[in-house]
Task: inverse folding
């Protein structure tokens, strides 16, 4: 019988160069897919945070104006843009409607939109004091007030507002809200 001349010491089973290339390519494809999935999840999280930020700031805006609108009193004079026997008056402004009212502290109040370094922000003026009540990271794109103040009925205002976040496209969120606020005073008050 003939003896096999192979030396098993040097001829051990192993992997070929083609197997290494295929496994490396497969690993790279899987890592690229995982990286893309991670990036998508990160972008969705940023967008969710931006949406939450817009929603919270619009909620704050509605809380601030609701208190003054509910307790607004009839002007009885003293406010330039407010008729003598009215609680509310609305005029058209540069960026949206402007609302005038007289609050329960007997101050003339103006709610409007104003440009603040390229960002349209919500502004409140009480007498000689004025300040923004929306942050610089939220751009108010639309604001309108619809006033219903029929004599003998309870006054109410419908507020329509659109806002979006300021920032990169991945963090962009736009929202439109509408609410109706009624006066606490019924009839003649």
Result:
């Amino acid at each position: 019988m003939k003896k096999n001349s192979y030396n098993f010491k040097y001829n051990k089973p192993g992997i070929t160069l083609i197997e290494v290339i295929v496994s490396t390519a497969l690993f790279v494809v899987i890592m690229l897919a995982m990286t893309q999935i991670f990036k998508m999840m990160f972008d969705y999280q940023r967008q969710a945070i931006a949406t939450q930020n817009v929603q919270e700031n619009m909620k704050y805006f509605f809380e601030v104006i609701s208190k003054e609108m509910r307790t607004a009193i009839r002007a009885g004079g003293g406010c330039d843009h407010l008729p003598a026997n009215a609680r509310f008056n609305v005029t058209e402004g540069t960026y949206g409607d402007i609302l005038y009212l007289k609050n329960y502290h007997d101050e003339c109040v103006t709610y409007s939109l104003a440009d603040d370094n390229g960002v349209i922000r919500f502004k409140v003026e009480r007498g000689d004091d004025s300040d923004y009540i929306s942050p610089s990271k939220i751009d108010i794109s639309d604001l309108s007030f619809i006033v219903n103040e029929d004599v003998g009925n309870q006054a109410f205002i419908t507020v329509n507002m659109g806002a979006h976040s300021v920032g990169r496209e991945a963090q962009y969120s736009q929202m439109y809200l509408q609410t109706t606020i009624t006066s606490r005073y019924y009839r003649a008050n």
Summary: The CA atoms of residues 91 and 106 lie 21 Å apart.
